[in-house]
Structure formats: structure tokens, C-alpha cells
Amino acid sequence: MSVETLEANPKHIVLTTGIYDLIKEHIRRRKVTREEEEVLNTQLKYAEQVLRKDLPADVVTINTRVTVKNHSTNEELVYTFVGPERARKKNKTESILSKIGLATVGCKEGDLINWELDGVQSNVEILKVERLP
Known about the structure:
Helix 1 runs antiparallel to helix 2 (34-46). The longest helix is centred in the first third of the chain and has 13 residues, at 34-46. The chain has a single domain (6-131), classed as Transcription elongation factor, GreA/GreB, C-terminal domain (Chitinase A, domain 3, Roll). By secondary structure, it is α/β, with parallel strands linked by helices. It has three helices and seven strands, in the order E-H-H-E-E-E-E-H-E-E.
């Protein structure tokens, strides 16, 4: 697996049109910081948009379980990403529009992402992406 830094290669993210529109609306509603807005707008500018059926299986999107390694803290964590209306802590699901969701959406297994999480600049590697039924 090759490791790419997202900032160095913003063109490699792949999104469904629905996710693309969801992120645009999230930005429009000012739900992100200015810095996040800049990064997200750059990513969206270069994002490849595909139909859901054409989205590669190793790309982070809604209804995926994602294993990541935070190289800044040396922790491995598992997230289950769902739409914002379905995210529930008691179900251990995370909104795709959460900080970690926005950091990883459209990226694939092996990607290394530099993103601010919990107020700290973090280097996160996507180890595994699993589609949920």
C-alpha cells in the first residue's frame, strides 16, 4: 500500500455526488473552521465524483467501518461512519460530517491524512475500510 499525504495530493479523493453535496452544504452552513473550509474546498475542487455503485470498496464514505492509526498518539481506532441524522453515540456510530469523518471521507486504505483533531494537528493513516450492508 502506498502512503500519500492528502495535502500534497488533493486530487486523489473520490466522493459520491451525494456526499459532495452534503459537504458543500455543511460548509455553507458554517459548521467548520476557516482552516477546515479552505482544505475542504480545495479537496472538493479536485475530487472525483462517481455514482455510489462505481465508488471503490476501499474508499471512506457513509456506511463504512474504518480502522485508522493516529500516528501522533500511536492509537488505532475504529469508526463506523453514517449520515449525520443516523449518528448515535450509544450505537457507536459517527457522523461522516464529524472531524474524523471529514478528515477521511473520500480517502482510501493506505492514505495518510494530516488534520486537526481535538485541537491537535494529527497524522492519521487509514488501515482498513469495510462497507456495511
